[in-house]
Specification:
heterodimer, A: mainly alpha, 8 helices, B: about 140 residues, mainly alpha
Chain lengths: ~160, ~140
């Protein structure tokens, strides 16, 4: 049998069934929702996106001036004579903060390229198969470049 | 209430040609944006070669500087510079779209965000250039 609609009940009916209609005591206890576990936090895709984003900012803010100096100004002869002399550059690079900076300068754009290229192979070049292999190749290359840079910087 | 099994209709999924991004200027700009990452990575490789030559001693370093002065390499560097500048400007423009900045209840207009990023870029470039060349 269908439950009666509220506007069909008389006041007496409502009062008679008031015990059953009573809202039980107190607000419902706020149940603690479990936050993201370690497995969710360590998903690879957001990490790659984060590296892509950082690499994009390094490539945007820092790389242009380095290309302008090392690539264009040096070949055009616009730099002071001893700006890139061996002794001066070795002194600059041997500073530990400079090494950290150079590691980021080389490594992050590589990860930026890796993430972008992995999707560009799919979207622009239209290659649909071997996704896992392509991803591995891209990020692997970036990781290899990072490792090589770290090795070289430690040796300098 | 009786539930019916959902009717299945054939869905038409058009085959997207591989050259879809050549068909209009906005698509081309998108592809160009993506492709600038290749040039940024190329410069990372050049920097790695630079540091490697530096770590190997004076002769290797002098040889690398000679290579860097080759006209072909200089031309390639100019192309890298153009690509990376295009990346920077489009990156700032996209950042202004993605990141909504509110100050005191009002949204900062996108043009101002881009201009602020360009100012930051100029300041950072000046500092780096000073340390690189004249310090």
């Amino acid at each position: 049998m269908e439950p009666p609609r509220l506007d069909e009940l008389s006041l007496g009916d409502i009062l008679d069934t008031s015990d059953a209609r009573e809202v039980k005591s107190g607000m419902p206890r706020a149940r603690r929702r479990r936050g993201p576990g370690l497995r969710q936090l360590l998903q690879p895709e957001p990490m790659f996106w984060g590296l892509f984003s950082a690499g994009g900012f390094v490539a945007a803010l820092l790389v242009p001036v380095h290309v302008a100096i090392l690539g264009v100004a040096f070949a055009a002869g616009w730099l002071p004579q001893d700006a890139l002399s061996y002794d001066r550059v070795v002194d600059l690079v041997r500073d530990p903060i400079a090494k950290l900076y150079l590691l980021g300068l080389v490594s992050l754009p590589l990860f930026h390229w890796a993430h972008r290229f992995r999707f560009a192979v799919h979207h622009q070049l239209g290659i649909h198969g071997g996704r896992r292999l392509i991803g591995l190749a891209c990020y692997g290359t970036a990781l290899a470049g990072t490792a090589l840079t770290a090795l070289v910087l430690l040796r300098t | 209430m009786k539930t019916e099994a959902p009717r299945r209709y054939p869905v038409y999924v058009p085959k997207v040609p591989r050259t879809w991004w050549l068909r209009s200027a906005p698509f081309l700009r998108f592809a160009a944006r993506e492709f600038t990452a290749v040039f940024a990575a190329a410069f990372s490789v050049i920097l790695l070669l630079f540091l490697s030559a530096l770590s190997e001693g004076r002769d290797a370093y002098a040889g690398f500087l000679r290579w860097l002065r080759l006209p072909g390499i200089a031309a390639f560097s100019a192309i890298i510079l153009a690509a990376v500048l295009y990346h920077a400007l489009t990156w700032f423009r996209l950042t202004a779209h993605i990141q909504v900045i509110r100050l005191g209840g009002k949204v900062v207009p996108r043009g101002i965000v881009v201009a602020a990023l360009i100012v930051v870029w100029m300041v950072v470039s000046t500092i780096v250039a000073y340390l690189h060349v004249w310090f």
